[in-house]
Design a protein that fits this description.
By secondary structure, the chain is an alpha+beta fold. The protein has four helices and five strands. The chain starts with a strand and ends with a helix. Pfam families: DUF3037.
Length: about 120
């Protein structure tokens, strides 16, 4: 099955153009799959910016989870189709949490592929 994914990046100080990968969002239309997997290393993030509010980064990632699940707490974005939700999550934003470019691939198991990508690209 074909899938698309974006890597979520924490960009504490955009002026320095430094970022740390903190999560992955994967969408597989043919299996009605949309999910995120993330991991935050507070020490590594604080090495980029000692003043970074790591709790806010985690809150933003939790919001991504809510959108993926279609949870009403995520507002209008969560009420859309899976494809539209992925479109919302992959759209560039000028916030501390930013999606990277869209990539794709093929898999037999989207959930397993998501875990693999998070382990390989985030740690």
């Amino acid at each position: 099955m074909a899938y698309q994914y974006v890597v979520l990046r924490c960009v504490p100080r955009p002026d320095r153009e430094e970022f740390l990968n903190v999560g992955v969002v994967l969408h597989c239309q043919s299996s009605d799959f949309l999910d995120a997997d993330w991991s935050v290393d507070a020490d590594r993030l604080r090495a980029l910016d000692a003043q970074l509010d790591v709790d806010r980064v985690c809150e933003a990632l939790t919001f991504v989870d809510l959108v993926c699940r279609g949870d009403e707490r995520a507002g209008e974005a969560a009420r859309q189709s899976l494809g539209q939700r992925f479109g919302f999550l992959k759209a560039p934003r000028s916030t501390v949490l930013q999606p990277g470019p869209v990539h794709g691939g093929m898999t037999l198991d989207p959930a397993r592929q998501l875990r693999h990508l998070r382990e390989r690209l985030v740690g």
